Amino acid sequence: MLNFTIRRLILAVPTLLFISLVIFLLLELAPGDPMAQVPLTVPPEVKEKMREALGLGQPMHVRFWKWIVQFFWIEPQVLVDHIFGTSFSAGDLRVISWQTRSPVMDIVVQRIPQTLWVVGTAYVVAILIALPIGIYSAYRQYSWFDQMGTFVSMVGFSVPPFFSGVLVIVIFSVQLGWFPSIYDTTHVVNDWDSFVVQLKQMIMPVMVLALQITAQLSRFMRASMLDNLNQDYVRTARAKGLSEYTVVMVHVLRNSMIPVVTVIALGIPSIFGGAIITEQVFKVNGIGQLLIGAIQANDLPMVQTLTFIFAVLIVLFNLIADVLYGILDPRIRYD
């Protein structure tokens, strides 16, 4: 397993370099000009100097190499300096946002807590709800519980978040007045009362996101459990006199988790990507809203960095899912 992990990590380096090149080329070929929002009263020579200051006058390969060095070499040094108080990155030019004129990673670090509060909590809540529902629905196939779970899953798949988000705002915020309709990103949690306020403003966006994720995971869990409940090893385990709990929750569940782990692991990068639509509906100032704003402003360094971070997370959690396969199923070996 260790050798497999090391091989995959080594293979991930050229993979990520190729992904970064593709992202860079796609954004370079995209229409738009970062200087388009500059007022018309600015003289052309001033605009040209501004373009040079942004690095737009340099050849494409030079700008790509500078971005690679800044992302893979300078930004890790900045992190080390922040943690240990060193000065390795002193004087080095970081990846700068064209829109805010500040380091991209500083803005990302500021936005991640808001996204994790909402999207991360919704993902954890959805997993804790979806897995038991999927297990029991499969074990009690065609029961009233299974029929109800199927109905809720269809609703979760069918209703888009821009509709369900507005619906819960109308019901729980406008009509009942229980929760705030706008997420206050400036709120600081420092005592119990502030934590209660934070919890109240999280309930509605978490509810909307958890509905979608629960619908997906519970159906995967149910289908995987049904596939394993009819296998020969289940009948053999029951014939040996094992309890029904041991058969279902140990033998069947362990094998059934293999495809579900893939869905869960590949869905984790979306937590850091943020729920773009839901963040727009509830005004959550997270990563998703940051990406939308950067696209609208044609802020290529911000879009490029965020997109590449998502690619890194996908490659990483793909590896984690493969490692978990070997832990869940002893028949899988990577030697």
Characterize the structure shown.
- By secondary structure, the chain is mostly helical.
- It has a domain at 109-328: MetI-like fold (Orthogonal Bundle).
- 74% of the residues lie in helices and 0% in strands.
- Helix 4 (104-139) packs antiparallel against helix 5 (144-158), helix 6 packs across helix 7 (192-229) and helix 9 (244-267) runs antiparallel to helix 13.
- The chain is globular and about 85 Å long.
- The model has no long low-confidence stretch (mean pLDDT 78).
In short:
The protein has 335 residues and is mainly alpha-helical. The protein has a domain at 109-328: MetI-like fold (Orthogonal Bundle). The protein has helices at 2-29, 44-53, 60-84, 104-139, 144-158, 161-175, 192-229, 232-239, 244-267, 269-273, 276-281, 287-296, 300-328.
Q: Could you name the key traits of this structure?
A:
single chain; 335 residues; mainly alpha; MetI-like fold; 74% helix; 0% strand
Give the C-alpha Rg.
Answer: 24 Å
The total strand number stands at: 0
Fourth CATH level, the homologous superfamily of the domain at 109-328: MetI-like
CATH class of the domain at 109-328: Mainly Alpha
**CATH level 3 topology of the domain at 109-328:** MetI-like fold
**CATH architecture type of the domain at 109-328:** Orthogonal Bundle
Order of helices and strands: HHHHHHHHHHHHH
Q: How does the overall form come out from the CA principal axes?
A: globular
Number of helices: 13
Instruction: Give the low-pLDDT segments.
Output: none
Structural class assignment: mainly alpha
Helix content: over 70%
Instruction: Provide mean pLDDT, rounded.
Output: 78
GO biological process, one term: transmembrane transport
Family: Belongs to the binding-protein-dependent transport system permease family.
Domain ABC transmembrane type-1: 112-321
Organism: Ruegeria intermedia
